[in-house]
Automatic annotation (TrEMBL), chains A, B:
Name by which UniProt lists this protein: CinA-like protein
Lineage, highest ranks first: Bacteria, Pseudomonadati, Bacteroidota, Cytophagia, Cytophagales
Family: Belongs to the CinA family.
Domain of life of the source: Bacteria
NCBIfam families listed in its UniProt record: cinA_nterm, molyb_syn, PncC_domain, PRK00549.1
Domain called MoaB/Mog: residue spans: 8-175
Length: 420, 420
């Protein structure tokens, strides 16, 4: 097995040090590198000053064999990074014809005049290999210097992602003969990390030593990622997949998908398979439930609408919640939320409906119903189901949790395919 | 003027290097340090390995006089950081009685059994000064070692923020005699950075040399932050504020607030001052408009509800949009969105209403109405106003931009206080 290189990530820009921009590029790079089995040794964010960039480059190459650099490549940054890199490698900038043609083509297509600053994007240090950037004007650059690989990418996230995926990761795998690695992701919802770990402890303990399970928690659930490192035996992936039926059996209804699928996406598929339409009635979630559902492209095929009934009058007038129900049980009650779901079905003319009502906080709590009291309901032609939950981690998280739990309630009660 | 120290930020945790967690702590610290006039020299994220933490500490103190460390302090992290720090400073861990009492108090209050791991949170390196953490169990720690200040804080964001605000920033100001610095923030919306800069170029050029203006862009607008550094003359802040009337005059209706106020918050205040209620009718924004409005605590005082009419049938049945209007102009048209706003006013029984309809993408565009075509409308008792806009930067950003523009439309057309 070849010795794998450590990787260092360096992001350049005063705006990172001032905290005006949150560095999300490093997290993406870290995730993708972990997926191919490479370790990130350190992430550094440095200023736009040439001497400080050089000092950071010197330190990075002491720690790692690969240094991935982002930022400082756009025309507004005065191409600082590539000038610094040219000086660092004691070479000069040369014109890269294919990049110039690419940039010219982009400006022709958008019918915009090309400025000198745009033309300069085609200048690159003479010792680099250019990585073609199909989604922007600043090219990626690959350097090898005394055994260390340096790669420079634009700081614009979607350009960096394109270059990482299309050029940098495959090249690193080839250059360092990184052994193949496979991942299988199982999405779960509704079970905390420690409960989940308990249910699969012996399954996990019995995994071959080249298989590793990672718990990746999110609000309301956990993604499980099984990673298989090559062991010289054939059929790595099929052997991993053969372990999944037992995992699914242990976790039962908590598993909602395999692969990188969001809960709202999984629900869209279930609805489309059954030819069912969905609507929502929202109080405490204030529109976020509908927003999560409609964040999936194509959701208009099954999602018809929502009635956000923040005020009790709207609950009565638009959702036909009875005044007596509100008086007897209050707006945050299973009784009210059931009527909201049923009202949404009728009013929106949908097959299935979800409803939410809760005390998101910070105010509005009582002794009986403290902040974090949440009621959710699901209704279809045959049944109405409701739940009362408690979750209190601040207004925003309370609302996000409610949305996830409501989506899950739908998933668990949607009629089976044959019935729908 | 005393020489100001450079600051180094160090975040500890394998989860940062794997990209499982995005480091938002550094951005907060960078912002707050910039506000008091201190420069961040570098931000480093390092692993949980003791030798790598020590190497990073050695390098950080070479570059800066203050090193702020977060992460590695919770019980689940096995208190790694403080053990490493104790060894780094060649001292041992000692029990800090006030912290033990504080932790015991928290467990008593929640009536939970205290484990040994919780008790160990009261152990701190003998050479540190403890910074009291009122919002958690892991204390902050302040070290001075051969002229360098090291501060260790928990990685939990709200605990780090508490310690920064209450203890670290004031102590740094005092310890290094940081001269006072004042900030005045002016919030604008609806004008791009370069247009805005043009309108105030000569105003900005005429600022005293100790006043600096920062442009902080967000989707749909720009925050302007005027920073005043002490110049030995009295009344720094009043002198800064005296410049604002001219700035406001230049930017006119684009200014919506002074200070750290969100647009949805500013609108809530305007509605409350006028005693008006608000409702929304949403197509392309799919609930996000209502969610942004209801993300403000107390919004139930003026926001009654929303009808998310994703489907045309819902637009007709719940918002009384005419079939002829939809047939003649389509769902994405000023005609339709005006009827939506008027329908929402009637159906929700609100004083003023906002409506949105657009092609968020990635699909659904036509030659006439490409992806990114957006229509918004405002309606009150006296008038209905609509706009057609174009904005295409991907589904999620298109929707977010539409929400901001709709909120701004309301702000610009709400009746003046005397009329309402």
């Amino acid at each position: 097995m070849p010795l794998l290189p450590d990787v260092e990530i360096m992001t350049i820009g005063d705006e990172l040090l001032y905290g005006q921009v949150i560095d999300t590029n490093s997290a993406f790079m870290g995730q993708e590198l972990a997926k191919i089995g490479l370790r990130v040794r350190q992430i550094s964010s440095v200023s736009d000053r040439a001497d400080e960039i050089v000092a950071a480059l010197d330190q990075a190459r002491e720690r790692a064999q690969v240094v991935l650099i982002t930022g400082g490549l756009g025309p507004t940054k005065d191409d600082l990074t590539k000038h610094v890199l040219a000086r660092y490698f004691q070479t000069e900038l040369v014109l890269h014809e294919p990049t110039l043609e690419h940039v010219e083509g982009i400006f022709r297509r958008f019918n915009r005049p090309m400025l000198d600053v745009n033309r300069q994007q085609a200048l690159v240090p003479a010792n680099c290999e250019v990585l073609f950037n199909a989604v922007g004007t600043a090219p990626g650059m690959w350097f090898e210097d005394q055994g260390t690989v340096f790669v420079s990418m634009p700081g614009v996230p979607h350009e960096m992602k394109y270059l990482m995926t299309e050029a940098v990761l495959p090249r690193l795998q080839q250059r360092f003969q990184v052994p193949p690695i496979e991942h299988v992701v199982v999405q779960t919802v509704g079970l905390g990390e420690s409960f989940l770990a308990e249910q699969i402890a012996d399954w996990e303990a019995a995994l071959p030593t080249n298989f590793k399970l990672a718990y990746l928690p999110y609000l309301g659930g956990v993604r499980l990622r099984l990673t298989g490192h090559a062991d010289g035996l054939p059929d790595l992936r099929p052997r991993m997949e053969a372990l999944l039926p037992e995992l699914r059996a242990r976790l039962g209804e908590h598993v909602f998908a395999e692969g990188e699928v969001k809960l709202e996406e999984a629900i869209g598929r279930l609805l489309q398979e059954r030819g069912l339409t969905l609507g929502t009635a929202e109080s405490c979630t204030g529109g976020l439930l509908a927003h999560r559902i409609t964040s999936i492209p194509g959701s208009s095929a099954y999602f018809l609408g929502s009635i956000v009934a923040y005020d009790n009058r709207v609950k009565q007038q638009q959702l036909d919640v009875k005044a007596e129900t509100l008086a007897a049980y209050g707006a945050v009650s299973e009784e009210t939320v059931r009527e909201m779901a049923e009202g949404a079905r009728q009013r929106l003319g949908v097959d299935v409906a979800l409803a939410t009502s809760g005390i998101a906080g910070p105010d509005g709590g009582t002794t009986d119903k403290p902040v974090g009291t949440i009621c959710i309901a699901y209704a279809d032609a045959h049944q109405t189901v409701s739940r009362r939950l408690t979750f209190n981690r601040g207004r925003q998280l309370n609302v996000e949790y409610t949305v996830t739990m409501a989506l899950n309630l739908l998933r668990l009660h949607l009629p089976a395919l044959a019935e729908a």
